[in-house]
Amino acid sequence: MGRSPCSEENSVKKGPWTPEEDQKLTDYIQKNGHGSWRALPKLAGLKRCGKSCRLRWTNYLRPDIKRGKFSNEEENTILHLHSILGNKWSAIAAHLPGRTDNEIKNYWNTHLKKRLIQMGIDPMTHQPKTDLFSCLPQLIALANLKELLEHTQLAHNLQYLNLLRQPTIIANNPELATALNATNFMATDQEPNPYFSNDSLQVGQGRVEMSDFFSVENAPVGGGCSQPLQQQVSIDQEVVGQCQMGLMSDKSSSSTWNPLPPLMDSSGSNNTNSQENSSTVSYGGGGASALNWPDFIFEDSFLEDNLSEIRQI
DNA sequence: AACATTTACAACCGCGGGTAG
DNA sequence: TCTACCCGCGGTTGTAAATGT
């Protein structure tokens, strides 16, 4: 009873198609149309089952098939339609001229599905995953990203402070000079700044190369960043503005991690040895201080007044 | 250079709906 | 209404190519 499956038919060839077989099939269909697929192999002189011929034609030999990489537009269409239709590959293919359901299915399984999983999105529901284990890699990546961005803000703040050390700026702002002196951040030519240089930075007990902060190679994997990390954190002409924002946010929120150098009372006898302090001061602690940073360094007008000096550096 | 592993994709398999007799 | 057959669909497998060790 019932029909015999294609694979059980006698003398039916399976496996990859040869160029000769492709040519026979193409020639026959172009001359006669496919008609009955079941009858086609015999008429075309092929030792294949009708089903195999149909698949070969519709998925590979059909002249209107588009080859090559899927465009961003096609990817977006697949993602959108899949979120509505699910695994209805033929329905999705109907919206993508030249693409077969098989090709879309393969592309989904090998590229798009994996990408959604990496982004912490359930490929079947298109919703963010809720179970902790399945999105553990994303959580780790986010934790790494947070750490990187905190260090980046620290670097920005310190670079801003370094810019403020310029003699012309200090000469015009005695209050700033006092504050900088109070941080142990002020250095002379004979006594280099222990915390910051153009290419490295003191963080707690360690020293980190600036290149570690600002290279894509060291960026955390995953995390769903919508733009290259380098674009987000690179120090360029906007660094002054970013530094100022960092300073202001830290100033207004003392309960959060504070990357600013603490102000120290310079009248104290124990704070004169910067070399000793360099090994003990931790920016992360932000310990209690009787002194405050002068308000004017957080204001736009101060920045604008000194922008020309800062940009000459 | 050799081997192992991963990736990409063509092809196969089985199921279910539709239809003619 | 039942049966045999055809066709299309979605899931799965096999394998060549690419990449890593």
From TrEMBL:
Question: Where does the record place a coiled coil?
Answer: none
Q: Could you list the residue ranges that cross the membrane?
A: none
Name assigned to this protein:
Uncharacterized protein
| HTH myb-type domain: residues covered | 9-61, 62-116
Annotated region (Disordered), positions in chain: 1-22, 249-283
Residue span(s) of domain Myb-like: 9-61, 62-112
Which organism is the protein's source? Lactuca sativa
Extent of Low complexity compositional bias = 266-282
Organism superkingdom: Eukaryota
**Keyword set, alphabetical order:** DNA-binding, Nucleus, Repeat
Q: By its UniProt entry, which Pfam families does this protein fall under?
A: Myb_DNA-binding
User: Which cell locations does it reside in?
Assistant: Nucleus
